[in-house]
Amino acid sequence: MKELFDNVSYGCSKLVTKKYSTSFSMAVNMLSPSIRADIYNIYGFVRFADEIVDTFHDFEKKTLLDKFEKDYYEAKETGISLNPILNAFQHTVNKYQIDDELVDAFLSSMKADLGTIDYFTKEQYDQYIYGSADVVGLMCLKVFVNGDQKKYDELKGPAMRLGSAFQKVNFLRDLKNDFELLNRSYFPNLDLGELNQQSKEIIVKEIEADFEEAFVNGILKLPVEAKFGVYMAYRYYKKLLNKLKKVPSQDIMEARIRISNPMKINLLARSYVKYKLNLI
Known about the structure:
Blueprint (H helix, E strand, L loop, with lengths): L1 H19 L1 H7 L4 H23 L5 H18 L5 H13 L3 H13 L9 H23 L4 H25 L1 H7 L15 H21 L6 H22 L15 H16 L4
């Protein structure tokens, strides 16, 4: 019975989300039940692709990623895959008519991670962030607006800015791991051995501008089914950025900033109060 298999597939995507990211799981749990499964399905797909390039060091990553891509497009075409993560994702893609361009851009950025990245030019940096983060936000936006193309077009720019902000915070937080373990330096023309306070402040201001645009022109205008969950993710990443701002530039390569579980619960409680009081 296909329905049973689909439900098992959705359960796998939910499990992947909960095991890999407690913070994202918390945010998804704040979404309307009607859209949670589709967001889990999107996360499962992007997480597995990311795992291929970031952690499967003892395997032929390019072969795995190429097969993952091929299997996905076969699943999209046929409407089924024995890989439960791909089966769940293709269901969401077909349900909301998520454009191939978004998936292609994401996979292109994952392929960029297969090689050594000394640093990106500004153009490469923007293209990578678009593929690795912005398009994921756009996939989720397709779900949030439930097929309303006018609303999608209105919120597309802010959704991309929010995805960019999240990714840049991740870059700043993971500088040491990216540079020393994965041979990557994403920020344009930045020598991580010479990171100074001025360079760090430029990066932080860029992220803050992304957050401001995303909040004012995006989050505040989201449908009620998605608004609080996205706001929670926004608050979490803003908290991460504020902690990173306090770390001196010369120490940031050694710092591993995280938000503790008690702090996440505190964030959730304070965010919920603001939401219920219509302060967002």
